[in-house]
Amino acid sequence: MPSRPVAYALLVAMSLGVCACAPPARSDHMAPAPTEETQFAADSPLRDAIELKDVGGGEPATEDTSIGDDQLRQAVQGALLQYGLLQSDQGKAHFRLNVTMIRLSPPGAGIDLTVNCQVRYNLARADTGAVLFNDVVKASYTAKLGDELVALLRQRLAKEGAVRANIAAFLERLKSLPVSGPAKQSAELAQ
């Protein structure tokens, strides 16, 4: 049995992520689940009306727990499906959504690991192409030592949580978006 200082050194090494590689992030852990407060109204024009088009900007999924395009697509698609917004039949979709990962910051070393996530969402009408939403959504998530002892696994939790928080923030903004009437573009979008 190792001495107490050696055992502590091993524990610190594991918690700092020196000992292993983490598995890639899981898309099913990045899709926020709807609650009664976050669910869209049954008569929302967005219900069963959004087609997920292009998703990009992610890195290839590797052992360093990066979020790949496929994982991001699956997470956004899963969220749209759970919220009742996804329309899988392209011909029936009233809106098209494009998603681009702008930044997913790697957490620094430490006990609590925070990841910041920036994603651009572009929602346009399918019939006219008029842009209804075009903005970068920012969110972060902190995975604590109590969530996971091993730092690389805690890092994966932080990345999954940051993407989940980002998608949830987008959906919350989408709930308050006026989708009836003419599309409103900001001065930034008109450039």
What's the SSE blueprint?
Elements lengths: L3 H12 L34 E7 L12 H14 L12 E10 L8 E13 L5 E13 L7 H25 L11 H4 L1
Parallel strand pairs: 1-2
Antiparallel strand pairs: 2-3, 3-4
Strand content: 15-25%
Question: Average pLDDT across residues?
Answer: 81
Largest sheet: 4 strands, mixed
- CATH class equals Alpha Beta
Cα(first) to Cα(last) distance is: 67 Å
Give the SSE order as H and E letters. HEHEEEHH
In helices, the fraction of residues equals 25-40%
Tell me the CATH topology. Double Stranded RNA Binding Domain
Radius of gyration in whole Å, from Cα?
Answer: 19 Å
Q: How many helix segments?
A: 4
Strands, count: 4
Fourth CATH level, the homologous superfamily: Lipoprotein like domain
Question: What is the strand arrangement across the widest sheet?
Answer: 1-2-3-4
Structural class: alpha+beta
List segments where confidence is low: pLDDT < 50 over at least 5 consecutive residues.
6-20, 181-191
The CATH architecture term is 2-Layer Sandwich
Oligomer: single chain
Number of domains: 1
Shape: elongated
Structure write-up:
- The protein is built from four helices and four strands.
- It is α+β, with helices and mostly antiparallel strands.
- The chain has one domain: Lipoprotein like domain (Double Stranded RNA Binding Domain, 2-Layer Sandwich), CATH 3.30.160.150.
- A four-stranded mixed sheet has the order 1-2-3-4.
- The C terminus is likely disordered.
